[in-house]
Amino acid sequence: MAATLPPPRLLPSGDSAVTVEFSRTIDDDANQRVLALDKALAASPIEGITETVPTYRSLLVHYDPGKIGFDALGDKLIPIAIQPPPPVTKARRWRIPVAYGGEHGIDLEDVAKALNTTPDDIVARHAGGDYKVAMIGFTPGWSYLSGLDKSLHMSRRQSPRLLTPAGTISIGGVQAGIQCLAAPSGWHLLGRTPVRTYQLHRNPTFLTEPGDRVTFFAIDHKTFDEMDRAAEAGEIVAEQVNA
Amino acid sequence: MSRLVVASIGPASSVQDGGRHGAQRYGLTVSGAMDRLSLAAANTLVGNEPFAAAVEIGPFGAAFTARDGAVRVAISGAPRNADIAGSPVATDTSVTLKDGETLTLGFARGGAFTYLAIEGAIKGEMVFGSLAVNARAGLGSPYPRPLQAGDEFSVDAASGAPELRIELPKPVSGPIRVVLGPQDDEFDDANKALFLDSEWKISATSDRMGYRLEGPAIKHLHGHNIVSDGTVNGSIQVPGNGAPIALMMDRGTSGGYPKIATIITADVGRLAQTSAGTAFRFKAVSMAEAQDEARKFAQAIKTLPDRLRASDTVELNIEALSDANVAGYAVSAVDAGTWQVTAEP
């Protein structure tokens, strides 16, 4: 049997949830353990757990204190959480089309200037990346990606924008993102995708899952418009590759 | 089928139920009633499941008219004047509106949210098991937005069942109870003490997403940026300006500010019903106590049907009367069921 890993911290989040924290920072190994614990709990549910929410570094476990108490739940979670995560064999991969720059990516030029390079180079670096959906949060379908090229790490905007468009593809700090609904954001907007990661009357309603791999490819603005109409009508428009 | 027409309604009023669970992992906000006990009480009065969809009425007035038949409804939550054609309707009672009659509700007097439950419940298209309005995500049914005058609900014709009142458990008073964490270690002892020992007020800019708290600035040990992690109803996060925000039902599913404490389940509705500007305090309790209170709260909701009484029987609730008098409220000694609606000094 493989050696076990250090136990996560169990942080109380009120009387009906516990944050199982593997790291305080963005850390791919920790995210791997978060997703592995999430999967293990889905495969062998613990009585009393009502919902789990994976994030970069922790798994938020909602539970019913009428069914299980904080200590008893912790005693059951820790032995699972210290197991080394199994190697990821088959991750689903999404190829996401992006119309970069112009009205769809109003920060592309400024980002290029700030990093002393050209907009084309920024697009190449962003689209050339191999990303993983580390978590989904904030608003429906908002997919936080790890794997952003180090040369694109830059701090968020001084003043967040109150409204950024649906489908925004952006970067902020060490993270990249696919935003589904129009929302406030302090990230740098590089482009827009016609892909809806959340669409109510479509099957599936949610396209991306934590753990999915993501790559981007550039499309021109005319293609964006065509794909956007198809997506509005319920087409997925992202390409799925089973890697 | 009858119809219940919204004749008039103020802002911050929407259809709410027990909320949308199971998809927080996709960023889907839970939503649901700000005061679950009051939602459950109103529903219980008209024979619905406790967390069936009902109208959550914000602090301003509202009026509802029955059309195409009679409609049986009940109100619970923040006390306010209510009448049908001038004859008063008590909070925590059911009442049947005859075809064409209008139930008129005044401003909330203390608290914020009153629940109007309709016999047979509000009907609509469920998404993730809920009709709750989440305006930001365009979710909710029959209207995916706050209610407006002219909206209407297709509802069951009134059953003709005898009217009921409900004797709710004695309201809890005193501080809002919290469990420290999950990120209380992002604050030093002095700032934790400042949070627990200070008097707070709810800012007027609060909404269903979060209640902003006015009081001393709480300082972080290591700055205000943490890596985003999950939130719950009642998470108290402290952003860069040091002014805590209690996250409520329309919260984002994750957040990147340190959370100093979490309001216990039994007290989230109490905070929701604290009016802007009213001073209150927090008190830290142990996990064991918080979970005990959560179980009692769940049990109180489950046993609400045992608290139903025929609306024409009056039992003097001496304890409640005495509390109300001590609080300086004039109360009617013969109308124990309505003592809390006559909250005039």
What does this molecule look like?
The complex is a heterodimer of chains A (243) and B (345). By secondary structure, chain A is of the alpha+beta class. Chain A starts with 8 loop residues before the first strand and ends with a strand. In chain A, the strands form 3 sheets. Chain A has a 7-stranded mixed beta barrel with strand order 5-12-9-10-7-6-13. Chain A has a 4-stranded antiparallel sheet with strand order 1-2-4-3. In chain A, a hairpin with a 2-residue loop joins strand 9 (168-172) and strand 10 (175-178). The model of chain A has no long low-confidence stretch (mean pLDDT 94). The longest helix of chain A is centred in the N-terminal third of the chain and has 16 residues, at 28-43. In chain A, helix 3 (108-114) packs across helix 4. Chain A has 5 helices and 14 strands. Chain B is an alpha+beta fold and 345 residues long. Chain B is elongated. Chain B has a 7-stranded mixed sheet. Chain B has helices at residues 36-45, 189-197, 265-272, 287-302, 318-326; strands at 2-9, 14-16, 54-57, 62-67, 71-77, 82-84, 87-88, 93-97, 102-105, 114-118, 152-155, 164-166, 176-180, 201-202, 210-214, 229-230, 235-237, 245-247, 254-255, 259-263, 282-284, 308-310.
Note the beta-strand portion of chain A.
25-35%
Q: Main beta sheet of chain B, described?
A: 7 strands, mixed
The greatest interface here is: A-B, 44 and 46 residues
| Rough outline of chain A | globular
Estimated structural class of chain A: alpha+beta
Strand arrangement within the widest β-sheet of chain B reads 14-15-18-17-20-13-21
Estimated radius of gyration of chain A: 19 Å
Individual helix count of chain A: 5
What gap, in angstroms, lies between the N and C termini of chain A? 28 Å
Average pLDDT score of chain B = 90
Assign a percent range to the helix content of chain B.
10-25%
**Share of helix among residues of chain A?**
10-25%
Oligomerization category of the chains in this entry: heterodimer
Strand share of the residues of chain B?
Answer: 25-35%
Outline the low-pLDDT stretches of chain A. Answer: none
User: What general form of chain B does the structure show?
Assistant: elongated
